[in-house]
Amino acid sequence: RWFGQTAPPILEGACGEADETYEDASLKSSEATMAPDADEPVPQPVNASEPSQPTRLFRHKRCASVPNMLCLGEDVALSGPRRASVAIGVEPEPVPGVRPSRCRRSATAYAENALRPGEAGSAIWRPAPASSPAARDGVRCVEVVFDADPSTRWRLQRDSGDASWSIEFADTGLNVGVHAFHFLVDGQRSVSAAHLAQGSSNAALFNGAVRRYFEATAIAAQEDESPCSARSGNLRTWGGRTSSAVEPSPKSQLKSLARPHSISANLAALNESSSSDDDEDLMSSAQMKRAPTKHDPFPEDIYQGLFDASLRLRLHGFALPPPGGDAATELRFRAAGYQLKKPSGAECEDAFFVSMNAVGVADGVGSMGQFASYGVNSAAFAADLMDKASLHLLRQRNEFTGAPQSRALAACVAAEEQTGEFGASTISVVTLERTEIGVANLGDSGFMLLRKGATGMQVVHRSVEQQHGWNCPYQLMRIPPKLAARVPKYTQDHANDANLYKHEVLEGDLLLLFSDGLRDNLHDEEVLSIVDRVLSPAFASLAGFPEQATDPQDIASALVKASQLRSLDPRARVPFNVYSLEHGYHCLGGKEDDITVIAAWVVPEEAEL
Prior knowledge:
Elements: E1 10-12, E2 15-24, E3 56-63, E4 93-94, E5 104-106, E6 122-125, H1 133-137, E7 142-146, E8 149-155, E9 157-158, E10 165-168, E11 177-185, E12 188-190, E13 196-198, E14 201-206, H2 208-223, H3 278-281, H4 285-290, H5 311-314, E15 331-340, E16 350-354, E17 358-364, H6 378-395, H7 404-418, E18 423-433, E19 436-442, E20 446-453, E21 456-462, E22 467-469, E23 472-473, E24 476-478, H8 481-484, E25 499-504, E26 510-514, H9 516-519, H10 524-531, H11 537-543, H12 552-567, H13 575-582, E27 595-604
Antiparallel strand pairs: 1-5, 2-3, 3-4, 6-10, 7-8, 7-11, 9-10, 11-12, 11-14, 13-14, 15-27, 16-17, 17-18, 18-19, 18-24, 19-25, 20-21, 20-26, 22-23, 26-27
Helix pairs in contact: 6-7
């Protein structure tokens, strides 16, 4: 039992050396205690008015995996009616001589049930930037009403030097958690610009430990000589041509099944540069079973611009409140893309576009490169598809009145009809209309819609790839007449063959749109391990630190670099291995490919860019 409460479920954790002391006065008197080191003061009983009880002294141990955070938690006042409890960190290591215990860390570490004055933040009423100075200066009384206690009004104090009014969360008597509230400004209901807004109410996370974590993160970011938001120049608007690659792992003696590109079904028989050593590339079942199944952790530079791995634990149990009936009905994307070409390729054959209301990805079919002498160029074809699709959406922005998935499909159809390039490519377009996304997806590119839940990020919706057969995705294709004459009876996919999706989205959702370079090389749990280190603009505002929202380009960059790291690992066990086995092919190692990822936060229409 921890401070009179049963400890919650635990996760294993690693700890460093001891450097703090901790006392637990709830132990029975029959348990013996050991005196502390001579140079350490003996702590006094928690409540001097209560009968003295034998006290066991422990040392705090700092978690090696969580810098600057005590495993057990933080110093907590145990006396008085608002006795706090730590929902625990680590069962501490006792002083030598006391019964040893195992060092463990809880999934609900770092949470506190009581708020400390001066540390948990404040409810702040701040007028909208557009309000006039006269309106701001004329305010005489500001009160806040919490949904958890609607019968009580708390009067705010005006902050000196500006038009803000505030009251500390700790003064309200409310416990740790996400709370909704509204302000009364001279008796009129109002929403503050200082907190996450949901319709006519605000919401905030009351948690001193989380607040201290974000404050420490902000300080560390300022002191870091290599800023988290560093860019490497790999962002491309339509399609990258000269992106650099992550260094590959040392080569293994094992050879993976060659898969440098997808196959165009109609032209496979015309392959003019086929290899004769395919049989040597096939791995036996015995070799695959001997291969390691556990991946090495990603190096830290993969996570550049993201939070540390403790973020998920710190936010465990907290989620954005559900939107009310008067919540924002106009949402948009805050999006960015990132891509890397495969090291063996001359140029990146992926392309993409991003905007506030739509995003798209096209993955040029690499096998078409053998017909370059006919004027075929899948990289140019994919880039032109994205150019035409984005222009169609821009021109039809205020004219199209159908469902969002129909608008996405119309963009794909327009791209197919208007392109003047020769080549083959998959295509995927996502549009956002009010609170719904519509998706048209042709081929093996795809999307994931992720949402922050109480236990971390979760995949709530995803696409299913379209394949004619192994390694042969649905694709748009346009070939010159001279080449078409060689295959007069070929069949062709069209934009209207795309799978269509429609899903409702919420503020704070994260949309990932990607080429098959990500899907083939990263398992879902690896994707989640990365996105569990990111903070949405909505949750950053909820916590009171809107400036710490994770840049979508940093998210896209991390996923692309992680995908490429796996793709170049000759012993990796990736999703493409499983997919190939289902079609009778045995292969080992990552699938080398161009990789593109778009990350898009869902934010209110009025949110800043």
